[in-house]
Amino acid sequence: MIRVAIIGAGRGGTSLIHILHNDPLVTIVGVADIDPHAPGMLLASQLKIPITTDYRRLLRLSKVATIIDVTGNEEVARALLALDRPEVAVVGGPGAKFMWQLIEERIRSKEEIERHLREYQSLYRLYMREVRHAISEERTRIALDIHDGLVQTLAGLSYKLDLCQEFLTLDPVRCARTLKETQDVLKSAIEEARQVVFNLKPLHFDRLDLHPALKHYAKTYAKQYRIATTVSLAGSEKNLYPKTKIFLFRIIQEALSNVQKHAGASRVHVGVDIEKTSLTATIRDNGQGFDLPEISKDPEKWASLGLKGMSERARLLGGRVRIDTAPGKGTTIAVDIPLKNKEYERLG
Fold it and tell me: Residue 184: inside a domain, yes or no?
């Protein structure tokens, strides 16, 4: 066990205390500084390390192997030079300064690593929360799609088949006409079932084509909700990361769902502009708009409009969501996403 005394409790002494206190092979036997409120003196007190305002007391300690001077004080340097104790190693001057600067840099590096780790942990928790939320949203949406669409259509089919059975002998002509209607309804049910499946896997996982997926979704969206929907894409998507495409599709899907539920719009346009270092997606409708400052004050309304989910998805991509709206003026949602170095280098 190496017994160490430290003279000076400013930045240098504090850094030494931080490192040496956690070293199992080192015991700090004392810390000295003329300022009893120096940061190193306060830290030493917290760690139960003896402190003193008279550095000479440390020079007289019987069980000390190394004395480190980080004061830069000439009087202390002369006293250490005159110390007649060959068994005690003295570290001072430029050597001590280099030592504590090296240790301080190590502390800063450790703190920086820990900070980044906390950021990544926070981002991971946010991502997992977003995934759970997205799964819950998808389950609810699919259940509603099936209940309001496919189930109702199948119920209608059952009713028409009952009519056919009734008309089979009494009115064959009407029975044939009802069978034709039933066939049309069945085709509609098949199309609705396909739409439910498409919404589960909107992007083909072998190619992850964003533009065709958006165009197909816009087509079915326009047909289902009677809202004229157009899509445009500028730039190449082929080098975008799959995660970027999937998250962007979900953001646009959420924005369009918001238009259908709340905007009262007759037209909506989706534009995606892919540049070298950034990507911007814009969803613009001609609906009734809303009071953004007022909605922003109410977390429940903010979440119910899907704005929270869109913002969190964009944040997971390192981007942000901008909203331009006012009552009676329609709504424009812009999503700005920076492209990662490897991503835009491939585009370049």
Answer: no
